[in-house]
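debug: dumping io for the single-chain case to check the tokenizer round-trip. Nothing else runs in this session.
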Amino acid sequence: MLIVGCAAGALENVMDEIKKEDQLNKKKEIAQSKALPLQKELVDKYGNLMKYLLSSVTNMSELGTIMNIENLSLSPTYNLISKHDSLLRSLGCESLSIPSKDYKGELKIIVPSNRTSLSIGEDLNLKIIILGEHNDAKTFLFWKTLGSKGDYKKISLKHISKGVYEVIVPAKEIANNDFEYYISTESKGKVVNYPATSPEINRTVVLMEKN
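debug: decoded output
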């Protein structure tokens, strides 16, 4: 965030220089030689910031931080990234960069709300976010009774939108037993599990009596 802030500050200084310049040709020269490279650098550094944040996110609070940064950087109100685009275009800078919406980090599974307990008779209902290219046909939740030696049951994830999925383990199948689960997906032959310790150590869910 500091690096992005410094890049934005450097661009601001050059834009002030342009605004103070009286000669149009000189304005265009400064825009092409100084402002345009700085604007592209700002976009690149912002892209790196988003990559690192998304690569480390684990919960809804951290997702909220990313949304807040996007709002401050890209919204019409604050517009850190492209606030000078109209002026730069008027000075002949036509190839301005736009932040990419593609995730460029490692394949990652995020479960924002990690349930560790359920009331008896309650379904396990999870929302899951998968970042990076992956194969939906090889994306499942695997679960079994806690500590059992039996085979895992698997449930396909239902795609909602843009890497967001949901999955339900029905209470009638849980059958009042504590259980363990993990989520798995695959990309180009590489398997990624959540949690990373699975299937040796999985997420566990304990069933509790209703009050």
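debug: round-trip ok. Residues 2-90 form one domain.
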